[in-house]
Amino acid sequence: MSGGSARSLGKGSAPPGPVPEGLIRVYSMRFCPYAQRTRLVLTAKGIRHEVININLKNKPEWFFKKNPSGLVPVLETSLGQLICESAITCEYLDEAYPGKKLWPSDPYEKACQKMVFECVDQAPTLKLWMAAMKKDPTVSSLLTD
């Protein structure tokens, strides 16, 4: 199975079974930009994967064994290896799976690309920006008219 899974697991749900050989599993959330980054890399590299969406407001108890912080994305291999954090999962996928490389091989070019990613990661999220904009009198008047 590849792409977005229709099921979303929450509190009280049973954990999924072992990851089938030849697949990698990503614990995700449909609207999480960090998990989306990992899913984009999986798709760009053509990696066969299974998506398990986690209800982040009502997390299943077993998910904390996958990632004690309770955050997505988390990759799980068929060997039971767990890889957490968006940037780390993307770099792992690029190094562990042959074929099209997403990171440059030149160390300087790679460092430059990582600096750009760092700037993007430090930028406020759209949700925070929207909340701040709603406090602006000009914007709020447009929303109420």
Give a brief rundown of this model.
The chain is of the alpha/beta class and 145 residues long. It has six helices and five strands, in the order ββαβαββαααα. It has two domains: 8-103, Glutaredoxin; 104-145, no CATH class.
What does it look like?
This is Glutathione S-transferase omega. This protein is of the alpha/beta class and 145 residues long. Helices cover 42% and strands 13% of the residues. The protein is built from six helices and five strands; from the N terminus they run ββαβαββαααα. Helix 1 packs parallel to helix 3. The longest helix is centred in the last third of the chain and has 16 residues. The radius of gyration is 18 Å and the shape is flat. The termini are far apart. 20% of the residues are buried.
Name some characteristics of this structure.
single chain; 145 residues; alpha/beta; Glutaredoxin; 2 domains; 5-stranded mixed β-sheet; 6 helices; 42% helix; 13% strand; flat
